[in-house]
Write a structure and sequence with these properties.
It is found in: Cytoplasm. It is built from 7 helices and 12 strands. With 278 residues, it is an alpha+beta fold. It has 2 domains: 126 residues, Ubiquitin Conjugating Enzyme; 141 residues, Impact, N-terminal domain (Ribosomal Protein S5, domain 2), CATH 3.30.230.30. Strands 7, 8, 9, 10, 11 and 12 form a 6-stranded antiparallel β-sheet that branches. Helix 2 packs across helix 3. The chain is elongated and about 75 Å long.
Amino acid sequence: MSTDYEDLIEELDTIEAIYPDLLTKRIDESGLIQIKVPQHEYFSLQISFPTHYPSKEPPHLLEISISKKDIPSNVNIELYDLKYLEFLFQEVLDSVHHPGSVCLFDFLTELDGILYIEDEPTTTNGIQQDTSQPEQSSIPTDPFEGWTASDPITDRGSTFIAFAAKVDSEDDAFMKLQQLKMDHKLQRANHVMSAWRIKSMNDDNNTEIIYQDSDDDGETAAGSRMLHLITIMDVWNVIVVVARWFGGVHIGPSRFKHINSTAREAVIRAGFETNNKK
C-alpha cells in the first residue's frame, strides 16, 4: 500500500469523523468519492483522487449535483450556474492543495464562505454571490461603543474592513475584541486579525509599562504587519482589528495591502494619529 493511499484513507476517516453523514460514497477502485458540502447539504460533489495525491497532484472535481428535496426555502436554486460553480470549486481545490499535504477539509471549509446564503440573496452573472461578505450598506460603522470603522475594501470577492478603539490595558483589549466578535457579521468572517500597543504606568514604582501583541487568526503574518503599522504610526493605547470575508478567489499579496490600508484608515478616523502628533 502506497503512502499516498494511506494518507488518503486516513484523511477520509477524519472527514467522516468530523462530518459523519456527509460522505455518501467512500472511495472505490476508480478513486471516487461522493460528499455533501457542510452547511449546504443540498450540494453533492463527486471527487476523484489521482494516484499521486497528496504528494504531487490535487483532487479533481468531476461533478456537482443538487438534491432538490433538501433545498432550504430561502434558496432559489435557479440562480446557480453549475458549470461556473464547477470551475470555481476546482480553482479553490487547486489553491488549497500543497504537494505532500491532504486538503479535503480545507476545501470543504472554503466552500462554506462561497456558498453562504442569507434570506435575500444577490446575484451577478447568474450565480449566487457570497453573502457572508457584508454589503457596504449593511456593514456596521460603529458596532460597539468606542469603535471606529474604516470603509470596506472589496477585491475579487474578498471584503476587508478595520475597526480601531482606545484601550488602557491588555484586559481591556481582550474584552473589546471579544465584544466586537459578538457581531453576527464578524462571526462569519474568515479571519479577524488584531494588533494592539498599550502604554501605562505602574502605580507601585511609577514606571512605564508597555504591552504590544498581535494575532494573525489564520492569515499568516497579518497581525505582525498590523503591529508594525501602528508602531511606525507611533500610536499608543490602541487596538486595531481587521476582518476579512473570503470570496473564493485567492488574491495573493494584495490582501496585505488591503489589511494595512483599512487598518490605517480606522486608526486615523479614530483620532489616534492626531492625538499622538507632537
